[in-house]
User: Fold NlpC/P60 domain-containing protein from Kitasatospora terrestris.
Amino acid sequence: MPSSRIAKLTRTALATAIAASGIIAGTAFTTGSAHAASSVGGTISRDEVLTRANDWYNRQVPYDQQAWTTDLGGKNYRQDCSGFVSMAWHLNNSETTDTLDVRSLTTRIALTDLQPGDALDNDPHDGNSPYGSHIVLFDHWIDKSSGQFAFISEANSNDDMTKGTGTIGGYGNAGYFGLRYNNIIDAAWLAGDYPVAGNWDGGPADNVGIWRPSTGQFHLRNDDGGITKVDWGQAGDIPVSGNWDGGPANVGIWRPSTGEFHLRMDDGSLTKISWGQAGDIPVSGNWDGGPAENIGIWRPSTGEFHLRNDDGSLTKISWGQNGDIPVSANWDGGNGTNNGNIGIWRPSTAQFQLRNDDGSNTRLDWGQPR
Assistant:
């Protein structure tokens, strides 16, 4: 059957689950919704940490150890490097480089284990913060194999809010160590099941199903009402589905901690594809009109889709902005093909912006703003 039908239902269901979970936290969010995503001192997702950090960066909050400014929810934090990290983590207080390194608040991690929203600190907890103490917020890996990464920092009175790059070797030699906030989570997922859809049994229509994080198990409904259970994935994964090998629809997961898709083939075998990084959102669709569907990610920090084609090549498409929710399906009929297209739904305006084969934008107002 046309892969567009699978794509439409699957991605819409996934986007709904993502939207409801609060995983998307971006600069496009209204102050109220971003503030409501976490409570002061409570659990916070990596996406929200970076959203909060980018708010100060976008406002270019000046460095001033004697001044305070608000976060997205109106709480005041000190305008220096440790106050900035305290703000990004939504802490109760503006800590110092010294007091951020306490085990009741953070855990030390290897620099090679850094993930978005973690921090690099050079001031071990000993009760004082000497001149030159500094902390930066880890943004993402540029090239993990060489140790190159990107960071965000309230730097100093000359540079204020900055985004820069560094290398693990350079920072390690300078005495920096990794810190992970104890209340940070990979994604603010729903506590229950997640919906998926696809043509599981090769019949004339698509079917529904759920993926249960607590057991890592898909429960798929067939045309006759029967259930097929498939063990696939673990808590913290994100479910996906698509026609990976040209047969009926199959299931799969994307693992944010490794940036890896685990796709189940018709014969039950596993295909692993490294694609994306923590903070991305998985999508799938038949991007190149071939016999099978492909995988991809949408990167909220850049508003860019990274789509994988049958030959393994990458197609990048800039579409949307931080805070949007990605969707994909065959919006315009593919000129007689099954080509999938991408799009976004913008919560702040309740508007779909759908990309057609010719690159044009179809806007549809559907749903309620939030």
